[in-house]
């Protein structure tokens, strides 16, 4: 996903267009299908919260214009770090159908065990 390494307007548009195709394809299918917009925002997108929030806002609005009850998952910056959840700015009219995701992966014990 090129928007992670270059959050430019052209890559933002590319991502939004891709989700438009997906939303139109799945349309009003099973509500059990949710869309995870950007799994683990990383690279340059980590340092551009305004761009991340803008692309989330535009994409959520577009998807919900096509399918108003589609569940959408969004992740905060820094590979879905929970401490950045409060920095997410999401469209108010979509709040019942947008879920924030976060995770922390254990990387093993801090010391080698003998």
From TrEMBL:
Q: Which UniProt keywords apply?
A: Glycosidase, Hydrolase
Does the entry feature the keyword Hydrolase, yes or no?
yes
- One BP term from GO: polysaccharide catabolic process
All residue ranges annotated as the Glycoside hydrolase family domain in the record: 9-103
Q: Which organism is it from?
A: Salmonella enterica I
Q: What is this protein called?
A: Glycoside hydrolase family 5 domain-containing protein
What family is it from? Belongs to the glycosyl hydrolase 5 (cellulase A) family.
Q: Does the keyword Membrane apply?
A: no
Q: Which GO terms describe its molecular function?
A: hydrolase activity, hydrolyzing O-glycosyl compounds
């Amino acid at each position: 996903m090129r928007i992670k390494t270059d959050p430019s307007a052209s890559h933002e548009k590319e991502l939004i267009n891709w989700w438009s195709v997906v939303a139109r394809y799945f349309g009003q299918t099973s509500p059990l299908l949710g869309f995870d917009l950007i799994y683990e925002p990383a690279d340059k997108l980590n340092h551009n919260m305004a761009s991340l929030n803008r692309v989330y806002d535009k994409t959520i609005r577009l998807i919900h214009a096509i399918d108003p009850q589609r569940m959408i998952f969004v992740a905060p910056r820094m590979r879905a770090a929970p401490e950045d959840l409060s920095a997410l700015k999401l469209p108010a009219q979509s709040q019942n159908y947008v879920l924030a995701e976060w995770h922390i992966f254990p990387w093993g014990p801090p010391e080698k065990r003998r």
